[in-house]
């Protein structure tokens, strides 16, 4: 059961400019990462069970002036049979539609590179099209898709486990990138090394690997669900280039066969896709000709740059594959200017993809 009574729009314009700023309605599918994160967080805290179809939730805007119009954050409330859990989210999910509108305004000459701009998120209760504040922006804006997210999916399998037992034999990797609300993710060291080897094997070309694992749930001392990454499969049949990696139908087909075989042979029916790893086998400093600048750079010895970052293509791929799985991990194996290995992890946090930490487990 859900309650989602508002429609949303982004607004872009110059501060104090005459005339109304440009507005664009936002497809509610942009809100799905927040909805999934809110439901997942409620599951982690024991407020709802693993069958999310039984949950009651509402997503409401928190207004700047307390009554309507401009929004400062979103609030997700989730319950099942007891008290509701509330969680506030920033407006990061609106960044992409706002940037799209900004690019169009600049292309049409309505905004310039030097212009100061003001971007706002607006929320309204649906009204007849002729009276709607969003409809007032013009015919294009009035054609807002009225999509209401509905969660219909098979409950994720979980096993009993204790967080402290895993932490007792693990070391945190990049803990400065983690936050308290992140889902704890543990990777077996042997699996981590296997994934790195798969990503490095093509040399300067990008290589990749699928990560698999199981979810564990504890009830005491506090409710929590955590992920253990226990398998790695090299991404075969992929199109490998120096700055891109494209998975094909053959890549996914081979992985599904390997995962199903692992489930049967090891009696692990609960094992699921837990993430993807890939390698950036290039130095962080590249010239316009895409040749490395680092070898001749005087700051090479102390430079802190690295190539273990999520590109725009990586972000798009993560959204496409894991937008409904807030716990899933993306690993990138890159290089620093001295050609030393650097690894970074990325995943969903508060509805957007951000750098995060993980735990490396001795096995």
Précis, in short:
By secondary structure, this protein is of the alpha+beta class. Helix content is 21%, strand content 32%. The longest helix has 17 residues.
What does this structure look like?
- This protein is α+β, with helices and mostly antiparallel strands.
- The protein folds into 2 domains: 2-142, no CATH class; 158-361, Cytidine Deaminase, domain 2 (3-Layer(aba) Sandwich), CATH 3.40.140.
- The protein has 7 helices and 19 strands.
- The strands form 3 sheets. Strands 8, 9, 10, 11, 12, 15, 16, 17, 18 and 19 form a 10-stranded mixed beta sheet that branches.
- A hairpin with a 4-residue loop joins strand 13 (239-240) and strand 14 (245-246).
- The longest helix is centred in the last third of the chain and has 17 residues, at 249-265.
- The two termini are 43 Å apart.
- 33% of the residues are buried.
- Residues 130-151 have low confidence and may be disordered.
Write the layout of secondary structure elements.
Elements: E1 2-3, E2 7-13, E3 22-26, H1 32-44, E4 56-63, E5 69-79, E6 85-89, H2 95-107, E7 118-124, H3 139-142, E8 158-160, H4 163-167, E9 170-173, E10 185-188, H5 189-200, E11 208-218, E12 224-234, E13 239-240, E14 245-246, H6 249-265, E15 272-279, H7 312-322, E16 329-335, E17 341-349, E18 352-356, E19 358-361
Parallel strand pairs: 1-4, 8-11, 10-12, 10-19, 15-16
Antiparallel strand pairs: 2-3, 2-7, 4-5, 5-6, 5-7, 9-19, 11-12, 11-15, 13-14, 16-17, 17-18
